């Protein structure tokens, strides 16, 4: 079985020294919860390319918005056997992200081959650039990434529909979860204003 050390070793050969430590930390966290079957049919080099592609996606995303991307994996990161389409999402961490993505795909009769949902502490510079990543912890802003692989869709029009559908549903999740505490407070205030029975 391919180890994290194997993936790191493959990454080191393709990274500039200035970003190597950051991307190696990201890779460790990216694969931390992956089931053993996630690694099948890929070499260390392909898993390194996949992690690097995921990091570049994180770099270009923003916790201030919902980002969704649907497309074929880079050639150097594709599995060796079954062709897949990769679905990626990025949003600030909150409940219902995984359920929302999975239920949308289920409703479209799209079977999930592989699924990762790493949650990171991400520090960004004033320009939004990622300057540090770490494990999820209480009391710090967290960013959620979904990496989902499905049997290859093929049609760009269908991929665009899937992208738009997941983005729309995740925007609803953001609206609901952002409003949740305010709604609970409004309910508490209303109950407190009622005369005692």
Short précis:
With 197 residues, this protein is α+β, with helices and mostly antiparallel strands. It is 45% helix and 21% strand. Strands 1, 2, 3, 4, 5 and 6 form a six-stranded antiparallel beta sheet that branches.
Structure description:
- The structure is a single chain.
- The chain is α+β, with helices and mostly antiparallel strands.
- The protein has five helices and six strands.
- Strands 1, 2, 3, 4, 5 and 6 form a six-stranded antiparallel β-sheet that branches.
- β4 (119-124) and β5 form a beta hairpin.
- α4 packs across α5.
- It is globular, with a radius of gyration of 19 Å.
- The mean pLDDT is 91.
SSE topology string: HHHEEHEEEEH
Structural class: alpha+beta
What Rg, in angstroms, do the CA atoms define?
Answer: 19 Å
Could you report the average pLDDT, rounded to the nearest whole number? 91
Distance between the termini: 67 Å
Low-confidence runs: none
Largest sheet report: 6 strands, antiparallel
Proportion of residues in β-strands = 15-25%
> Could you estimate the helical fraction of the residues in percent?
40-55%
Overall form: globular
What attributes characterize this protein structure?
alpha+beta; six-stranded antiparallel beta sheet
């Amino acid at each position: 079985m391919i180890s994290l050390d194997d993936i790191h070793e493959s990454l080191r050969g393709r990274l500039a020294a200035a970003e190597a430590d950051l991307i190696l930390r990201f890779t460790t966290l990216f694969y931390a919860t992956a089931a053993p079957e996630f690694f099948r049919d890929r070499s260390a080099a392909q898993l390194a390319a996949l992690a690097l592609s995921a990091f570049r996606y994180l770099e270009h995303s923003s916790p201030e918005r919902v980002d969704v991307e649907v497309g074929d994996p880079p050639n150097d990161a594709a599995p060796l056997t079954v062709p897949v389409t990769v679905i990626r999402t990025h949003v600030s961490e909150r409940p219902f992200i995984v359920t929302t993505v999975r239920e949308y795909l289920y409703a479209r009769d799209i079977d999930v081959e592989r699924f990762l949902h790493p949650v990171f502490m991400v520090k960004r510079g004033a320009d939004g650039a990622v300057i540090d990543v770490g494990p999820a912890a209480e009391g710090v802003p967290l960013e959620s990434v979904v990496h989902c692989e499905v049997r290859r869709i093929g049609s760009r029009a269908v991929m665009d529909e899937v992208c738009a559908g997941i983005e729309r549903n995740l925007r609803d999740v953001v609206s609901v979860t952002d409003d949740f505490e305010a709604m609970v407070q409004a309910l508490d205030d209303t109950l407190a204003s009622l005369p005692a029975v």
